[in-house]
Amino acid sequence: MASNRADLAAMMYPVSRALMAAELPILRTHEISMWGYAVLNTLVEQPIHTQSALAKEIGADKTRIIPVLDELQERALIERTPDPDDRRARRLAVTDAGRALRDAVQADIQRGEDRLLARIPAADRTAFLRALALLAELAPEEISYLS
Amino acid sequence: MASNRADLAAMMYPVSRALMAAELPILRTHEISMWGYAVLNTLVEQPIHTQSALAKEIGADKTRIIPVLDELQERALIERTPDPDDRRARRLAVTDAGRALRDAVQADIQRGEDRLLARIPAADRTAFLRALALLAELAPEEISYLS
DNA sequence: TATTGTTATACTCTATAACTATA
DNA sequence: TATAGTTATAGAGTATAACAATA
């Protein structure tokens, strides 16, 4: 199968680092951090019932997102409401302002990404995005070379 | 263009993290670090005339690869020879043993990767690899959303 | 006994500063 | 004055341990 290609990780990791770096100026313009944006992006899909679940969803440690959630809440971009069914937990939901901010950020980011994707021949571009989406939907545990 | 897709970085970064994590057990088996493997991979392509150039090539700081080079040299996987034309510099080249090790490691890694790639429909797979290789060959500076 | 959220702490990785020797 | 290689140090980012409240 492999016709003398470079390792996948060796190709993908530097590219994804560069993609993240390219997002930073945009995020700064909107005064939000990478983790903050990741949280908004996740909560836009659906509210989440515990902070632990959110942390797991975005691949972060539960202790690491606490300052992020604190700031998002202060800025009224998310709501943390005590769960009446489990008084330990705090339900998380994005506010209208949070949704608007994430939409604005994403529009800027994807505008830049589209210019980059334009370098890929149209015939390959959709297949690339389809394959990438497929890989991204795999659970991390499914990406293993053992067994 | 974008038909409601996730951000590129949001898709690629977790995947590349998982790919790197999947390599670790293989690297451990061959008793080499990720950076050590990256160095061998680069030197297999061509010898390099300064450590700074090597560091830049693999996206590392020049101070960070020194212990890596020390160990590779101790294990006779690379050679560091003083450059007669510039006595500050040390030319870097992979040895036969180094080349053999990198070939063995790469075979193991790509065997695992091929199993992963098999999940992608064949019609998309080659286009995916072609597009990924194209992005990987861009200089990091070319991946920018400004201008 | 286990889990949620939290704080404080330790650890890892990475970049910066400062040095010697050459150019 | 600038660069190659090196060392030691500082910083950012991340994970671990321990705690109170609740299940």
List the helices and strands and how they pair.
2 copies of one chain form a homodimer.
Chain A: H1 8-29, H2 34-45, H3 51-57, H4 66-74, E1 78-82, E2 90-94, H5 96-117, H6 122-137
Antiparallel strand pairs in A: 1-2
The structure holds a DNA duplex (23 and 23 nucleotides).
Please explain how this structure is put together.
The structure is a homodimer of 147-residue chains. The first copy, chain A, has 6 helices and 2 strands; from the N terminus they run ααααββαα. The model of chain A has no long low-confidence stretch (mean pLDDT 94). In chain A, β1 and β2 form a beta hairpin. The two termini of chain A are 20 Å apart. The first copy, chain A, has a two-stranded antiparallel sheet with strand order 1-2. The first copy, chain A, is mostly helical and 147 residues long. Chain A has one domain: Arc Repressor Mutant, subunit A (Orthogonal Bundle). Chains A and B meet through α1, α5 and α6 of A and α1, α5 and α6 of B.
- In spatial order, strands of the major sheet of chain A run 1-2
Structural class of chain A: mainly alpha
Please give the largest β-sheet of chain A. Answer: 2 strands, antiparallel
Tell me the name of the CATH homologous superfamily of chain A: Winged helix-like DNA-binding domain superfamily/Winged helix DNA-binding domain
- What oligomeric state best describes the polypeptide chains here? homodimer
The chain pair forming the largest interface, with residue counts per chain, is: A-B, 58 and 59 residues
N/C terminus separation of chain A: 20 Å
- Percentage of residues assigned to helices of chain A: 55-70%
Shape assignment of chain A: globular
CATH class of chain A: Mainly Alpha
Poorly predicted regions of chain A: none
Mean pLDDT of chain A: 94
Strand content of chain A: 5-15%
How many individual β-strands of chain A? 2
SSE string of chain A, helices as H and strands as E: HHHHEEHH
Number of domains of chain A: 1
Give the number of helices of chain A: 6
Rg of chain A computed from alpha carbons, rounded to a whole number of angstroms: 18 Å
